[in-house]
Amino acid sequence: MIREGSRVAAVGRLVQPLAHCPHQAYITVCERCIYDCKFCAVPRLMGQPKSPEAVEGIVEACLEKGGLSAISLTSGVEVSPQAEVDRIAMLVRHLGRFNLPIGVSVIPTSQSNRILKEAGAVEVKYNVETVDPDLFEVVCPGLELEAIKEALKEAVGVFGPGRVFSNVIAGLGESDRVMREGIAELAEMGVLPVIRAVYPHPLRRQEIDMVRPSKERLLDLASHTKRCLDREGLRGDCALTMCYRCTGCDLVPHRDL
User: Fold this and answer.
1) Residue 132: inside a domain, yes or no?
2) Residue 256 forms part of a structural domain
3) pLDDT tens for residues 176-227?
4) b/e map of 13-30 (b: 16 or more CB within 10 Å)?
5) Domain, as residue range, for 29
6) What Å distances lie between residue 12 and 1, 23, 240, CA to CA?
7) What is the CATH number of the domain that holds 41?
8) pLDDT tens across 23-75, in order?
9) pTM for the full model?
10) How many domains are there within the chain?
11) Is residue 7 one of the residues assigned to a domain?
């Protein structure tokens, strides 16, 4: 229970995570990356990829706890984007025996939509990270914003409107005008934008200016996102997997507001 003076502002209950978030096995398959996105700690951490047996073990442990309703797989890039798509597709096929919806977040390739759909994924997330083209070149060297957008457009045709997502980070120096236009553009494609407040990780804090947005700005951007989704007939509360299903990090339209 949260109080503001004598007024009860909100009532809720604590929900225990299964793997990373409630009701899901949300698994980072490869904890290393050949890219150097300036807001991301993964290239500095240089973790190891998980074996198929380790991934399956996490899902089985979640099943034993009870309440598992989805599997979500995300990954860095150990060798190449295509090699990572192939690895994740293999895992999706392997995990299909659990008969749960599986969502996937990877860097897209020219074949990723077909490969992941055929493997059995029901939702995908390809992150634009920032909708400011000039800023993208600075914070995501080696990646192409337009290529990601094209993959998102194609994904909507493959997986369906409302089954495709994309992180849009707030706090990298983008203007509200560019942010709002980019959110509207994604919604018009049939993509659900995930408005993610930047986290200035200690390993990256000195490389670029990162300022966590105020609560007022986050509420404003989330409200704008909801209006854009409403205009396109999209629902944030119908997601089967990943971030919109979790609601832990972000304000989710039609669930939080």
Assistant:
1) yes
2) no
3) 999 999 999 999 999 999 999 999 989 888 889 999 999 999 999 999 999 9
4) eeeeebbbbbbbbbbbbb
5) 16-246
6) 6, 16, 22
7) 3.20.20.70
8) 999 999 999 999 999 999 999 988 999 999 999 999 999 999 999 999 999 99
9) 0.94
10) 1
11) no
